[in-house]
Amino acid sequence: MSKFSKSQKMSILDAKGPKGLRLCSTPKRNHTQIDENLPFHTFSPKPIIGTPSKVFKLGLITYSNDSKNTILKVPKKIIKKFGAVSIQCCLAMVNNLKKISKSDVSVSITGIAGPKGGTKSKPVGLVFIGIKKANKVSIYKCFFKNKGRSYIQKATVRKSLDLILRVIK
């Protein structure tokens, strides 16, 4: 587990992989929320001692296109034109998640973990990670080796955590 100084003023996520995901709070106790499509519950925080609700406000799994539309208000035209695994969909997911939860940091993940579902233009292992803090939004396009669904899910969580830590520092 990584060690962080007490002067850190943001909420942080720390993990030993998906099963060991823990929330760690720092003095300011800002909120973080996650919306995920690809990892399908691998990113959700595991129970910890204390009160994770002080730092983890909301977690959503919007796996189906319908749930992306009804819960996150991703326009159907975005999904139809660009697909659920696209920069445009990831951007709509993270922006609307921020509006819904009003948290300090929002994260959206959409991708293809396999074993099926990939195409030539969108292969298995393609993942988009969106992070929004205040009014700054970043969308990251990642390609993970197709070493199986579990590998892609874990690699996505690790990359997401790394990106979150970079954003909140």
Coarse shape: globular
The spatial strand order of the largest sheet comes to 4-3-5-6-7
**CATH fold group:** Maf protein
C-alpha-based Rg, rounded: 15 Å
CATH superfamily: CinA-like
Structural class: alpha/beta
> Hey, roughly how much beta strand do the residues contain?
15-25%
Number of helices: 4
Mean pLDDT: 76
- The CATH architecture category equals Alpha-Beta Complex
Overall tally of domains = 1
Helicity level: 25-40%
Order of helices and strands: EEEEHHHEEEH
Quick one: how many beta strands? 7
Describe this structure in words.
The chain contains 4 helices and 7 strands; from the N terminus they run E-E-E-E-H-H-H-E-E-E-H. The longest helix has 20 residues, at 149-168. The chain has a single domain, classed as CinA-like (Maf protein), CATH 3.90.950.20. It has a 5-stranded mixed sheet with strand order 4-3-5-6-7, sandwiched between helices. It has a two-stranded antiparallel ribbon with strand order 1-2. Strand 6 and strand 7 (136-143) form a beta hairpin. It is α/β, with parallel strands linked by helices and 169 residues long.
